[in-house]
Specification:
Blueprint (H helix, E strand, L loop, with lengths): L1 E2 L5 H16 L8 E2 L11 H9 L15 H5 L3 E3 L2 H10 L3 H5 L1 E3 L20 H26 L4
Parallel strand pairs: 1-2, 3-4
Amino acid sequence: MVCLGNICRSPLAEGILRSKIVAENLPVEVDSAGTSDYHIGEPPDKRSSANALAHGIDLSSLRGRQFTVKDFDDFDKIFVMDTSNYGNIIGLARNVNDRKKVELILNASFPNGNRSVPDPYFGGEEGFEHVFQLLDEACNNIIKQLKSDLGKTK
């Protein structure tokens, strides 16, 4: 999961997907990162954490980190939050296989829609809830795909 600073959208997406992976007992690893180095080592934004906690998801153990080229080796799929993040990550791709791993997360809900998750950082609480709802739906669809790929039904 990748956004700009790794303090709002991507840690929220990580927390949401991780909670669903645990609930489904899937052998999947999830992490998040930012395209910038603005918030390395910092916890998620308090508003994002509070919103997640209101939905039963604890982000307190997460810390911001910057996306690196090694992430292409460590992960099979790289979900980005917006077109700017997409361009930044594609710019780091070493080859076509790296590029194939990168996708806008909302394409899980709106196939080929290339929609961006809005950045709630400069908005109010309702923006964080809207982002939660968008990411929750996308993560539900990602889980369905993972279960299909892993041959698990539940």
